[in-house]
Amino acid sequence: MNRSTIVRSAVVTVATALAAAALVVPAEAQHRASADTLPLVTPRAETPVLHDDDEGGNADADDPAIWRNAAAPGRSLVVATAKEGGLRVYDLDARLVQSIAAPPAAGEDDAPGRFNNVDLVHGLRLPSGKADLAVTSDRGHDRLRFYRIDRDQAGGPLTDVTDPAAPPVFSQDQAEINDQRTAYGLATWTDPATGKSYALVSRRERTSIALLELLPAADGKVTYRKVRTLDLPASFRLPDGTSWSPCGEPGELPQVEGMVVDPANGMLYAGQEDIGVWRMRADLTGTPKLIDKVREYGVPGVYDEETEECTPGTDPGFGGTKVSADVEGLTLLTESDGDGYILASSQGDDTFAAYDRELEDANEYEGGFRVTAANDTLDGSEECDGAAVLNAPLGSKYPNGLLVVQDGHDAPGDGERDATNFKFVDLGKVMDALDN
Question: Which residue in 154, 222, 391, 407 is a FRET match for 350, CA 20 to 30 A apart?
Fold first, then answer.
């Protein structure tokens, strides 16, 4: 979701929650000063702007994934979601290669298709052979959609291979689907021990994460079955003995969106937007660990029905110091020596935080950066929802690898129209920023 115009804070309740250690929060001015001292990186290219209105097809940039063409790395692709606008596929010049519409509504009064997050599965075993797939969460229909990737296929590199009988992920019927507490965040994972591939899917306005096994179906299609679910806490015991939940609309719980799995150790990292970054086993067994909190963690607040906003109270100083709500896109930057980073979009202050991927280093914070304007016409990234990184040569355009980030407020924009797109950043610039 786009950065809230308010601070999502808390109503005090008594509930059972996983305890987390407190981090002392400096004053807001110090937060901003700290963010402003981070290294700056500039994009090399940007995709065509999308407009979330009738004229623009209700297209709203959200989440990217990078597919590497092993035979011709310079002909790799970026697959990205545009919500009700469906999917967009771009080449490394950020030019549009293919546009795929989201499925229509099931009925006249039902929710339309809405593609929220996307990730890739490499070499899924199908009766016709192994295939690379783009997997997306269709929030509108509470389902996953699958697209086979073939760079040289006539008509476009992506082909829909979704089993028409694929079931809803969370909902029991169409009425529940229309409530839109549906499939939201998404990460894929292939278990090296079994070769089985999975999708981890979060639920909108709920704390649930589901583990779905991806399965071949008839006629070369792909479906899934639910293995188990895990619920993160919605209420938290604070060091002063009180219990806290982030403020939101009545009945709305603190959701997860950004997720990524580290295949080296089978750990899932999940961004609970108003809470922080969790680490847990990708098979959803064991106990999740909160590795960092947002600055707003523990701040009380009151929801105003009339304005549909929360009024924050006094900060008690229990939050973190590195990221500001919402925590959004999470992506894994691997290095050849086994080191690397979990990158998280800190939407509240337009920065990116990097955490050590190695468990023995307790996922400690390693630094951050900001994606800022390259010139008057190529701006940076604000209110970033999704991000994807690939540390591998991608031809002459990106020999050092590529970082793609969503820009929630493209500038200079077009009058009053909401304008979003994706920025392409040379990964070498990011590595230099993190090494400094």
Answer: 391
At position 293, the amino acid (one-letter code) is K
pLDDT at 204 over 90: yes
Q: Rounded mean pLDDT of the chain?
A: 92
198: nearest Cα among 248, 144, 238: 144
pTM of the entire predicted model: 0.92
E strand or H helix at 257, and its extent?
Answer: strand 256-262
Q: Which residues contact 375 (CB under 8 A, 6 or more apart)?
A: none
DSSP-derived pairing of the beta strands 10-12 and 243-246: antiparallel
Which residues face 192 on adjacent strands? none
104-109 long-range contacts (CB < 8 A, ≥24 apart) are 105/140, 106/141, 106/174, 106/177, 107/174, 109/178
DSSP E strand boundaries for 139-205: 143-149, 158-160, 183-190, 197-203
Cβ–Cβ < 8 Å for 396, 389: no
pLDDT over 50 (residue 19): no
How many Å apart are CA 264 and CA 193, to the nearest integer? 11
Note the Cα 405 to chain centre separation in Å: 10
